[in-house]
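Q&A log
Question type: sequence-to-structure
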Amino acid sequence: MGEKEQVRPLAPAAAVDHHHSNNSDEETVLKKPSPRRKYIKWGSCLVAAIIVVIVVVVTLIFTIFKVKEPEIRMNGVTVDNHGFMIGTTPGPGTNISLIADISVKNPNYSSFRYKNTTTSLYYRGAVIGEARGPPGQSKARRTTRMNVTLDIIVDSLMKDPNLQNDLGTGLLTMSSYTVVGGRVKILNIIKRHVTVRMNCTMKVNIYSRAIEDQECKKKVKL
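Response status: OK
Response body:
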């Protein structure tokens, strides 16, 4: 018989490294973010964004969008009775009117809508004229000018014994009281009612029709 064939043992099957496989599974689980951590991250970003928006809005409200006081000023007057202007004492029944040039300055970043304006004119403490101006609007950071006609009460003016001397100097010491009420509305969100009361003392030059030495004090209610 021929030589017996030599039987070679089969190579052993590769051992499965269960330890390495388990470690790989654990690493995969660790790398996958948990839903809870994801929600916490999103929530933190949302809270931070809300805080930033609140800070910006509050800053704007107390700086740019802060409601500021409108300013009122009497720039000059025009006398439409020439007999009064040349320094003569007006007689009974004389019609005298003063046209006051009044400006309303709005320093706000939104328009200021005002109602009828009321102006009273005094000569040495006595009321000599009153007028009501029309309603209007002063645009944002603009100055609006308007003319208010005051009809002078001649009888009250003539009662003062100092009138003749004042007419001789060409200067009349007068005072005015003006009330302007309105509303400032910013971004259709912030609405503030504003009332401006202003007392002014001035010297009116009846020749140049100009106001001299004007001093005003105002009181604003927001």
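Response note: The chain has a mean pLDDT of 77.
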